[in-house]
Amino acid sequence: MPQNGQRRGPVIGIPSGETVASFDDYAGAQAAVDKLAAADFPVRRASIVGSDLKSVERITGRMSYGRAAAAGALSGAWLGLFFGLLLVIVSPESGFVFVGAAALIGAAFGMLFNVVTYTARRRRRDFSSIAQIVASSYSVIVEVELANKARNILGVSATSSGEQGPSMYL
């Protein structure tokens, strides 16, 4: 049973408390929480909050029929390999020949599917990319009654905790 108003499970929403440190990158905020954990700080009462979210799409190259076919064959082969191994586990007498056959069939279907998909959207998207959501800044927030303890562990003064930059805090 939760005691003293503490909750169990995930908390949905923006956490309340005080910002004890701010960083330009997630690694800095994570290092600050690691430092708190090493000092036996109750890290369950701390949060890392990212602000000013941005969508970033990094272009990895130009898409072509060859790249679409290769990517489809590779992902299909992995899926075929998985199903082939699953078949061997369920029915050991089938032998490992089926694993290779399943990988080849998966590669063929994956290649075919990816080439058809690329053909259908070729003129609208002739490149491959990786998309991610990133924040402009990250804040370490702790409950109000623990804010001074966290600042002491991190070596941050109450007046400087609103500034940004990982070099200040660690």
TrEMBL record:
Q: Which Pfam families match?
A: YflT
Where does the record place the General stress protein 17M-like domain? 19-93
Keyword Membrane (UniProt): yes
Q: What residues form the membrane-spanning segments? A: 68-90, 96-116
**InterPro entries attached to this UniProt entry:** GSP17M-like_dom
Q: Could you tell me the keywords of this UniProt record?
A: Membrane, Transmembrane, Transmembrane helix
Q: Which domain of life is it from?
A: Bacteria
This protein is called: General stress protein 17M-like domain-containing protein
The source organism is: Labedella gwakjiensis
Its lineage opens with: Bacteria, Bacillati, Actinomycetota, Actinomycetes, Micrococcales
